[in-house]
Amino acid sequence: MADMTEVRLTQVPSLGSLYAQALGRLAQTVMAMRPATALPQVRYVVDGVHADADQLAAYQQLLGEPGTDVLPAGYVHVLAFPVAMAVMARADFPLPLLGMVHLANTVEQRSPGRLGDRLDVRAWAEGLRAHRVGTQVDLVTEVSREGEILWRGVSTYLAKGKKLASAAPGEPGERPEAALPPVTGQWKLRADVGRRYAAVSGDRNPIHLSALTAKLFGFPRAIAHGMYTASRALATVGAPGDEAFRWNVEFGKPVLLPGTVTFGLAPAEGGGHTYAGWDARSGKVYFTGSVIATS
Question: pLDDT-based confidence at 168, cuts 50/70/90?
């Protein structure tokens, strides 16, 4: 990261304009036969980001978070995500933004943010590497307050079918699934969940909005945002108060909308919880993860 060029943006980019930019590059990046080579050595920075009270309240209501001035870790992701996406939307980013699959997310929250805080956000890409069905990359985002990092997120994405120029081997086959935790509830997700989460997050990726737009990218129906299911899981488990914690999620099969997610959680070794969401009829796993206190 030390060798990266720092680019300061005057404001958090609009996700709508970034998606339009990515759509314009779609044919070029998907149809190009050239393998992925290198990531842009650029770190984007936006200073003085503030949470919007109405957006925060709408997010808390949709995700089932308490209505306080504390910023849920999933909401901090919402605030910072456009800065990371601006990196992926660059012309020299070697993978197609639209159609990339969200594989996993790891968040380290060292201190909770609050409404009214002045937050500084920076984001960059790293870890370009082969996968058995394409190429994956990590988008790293840090959120600071008065020079101290309070939140750090690493989102791992996969570009299916996009080869990496290096000869490094791809990751091995799918890992065996761990035993599912005891059932604690079911989520009945309506067909409009994708649009409702898009309204509070700004993430209007067409795969989440309607069956018609999702079919353009190979899905039979709209699918739920991965960060919606992960953030709802976090709200259900409950963040450990003012303590620092680590929140992990790995995504499996997409949740088609409308749909039902069976949810379960169990105590984790050393404190905290593990959780999972799955289809009770087919047994396919939508996501697994954990919330572990680190202080």
Answer: low
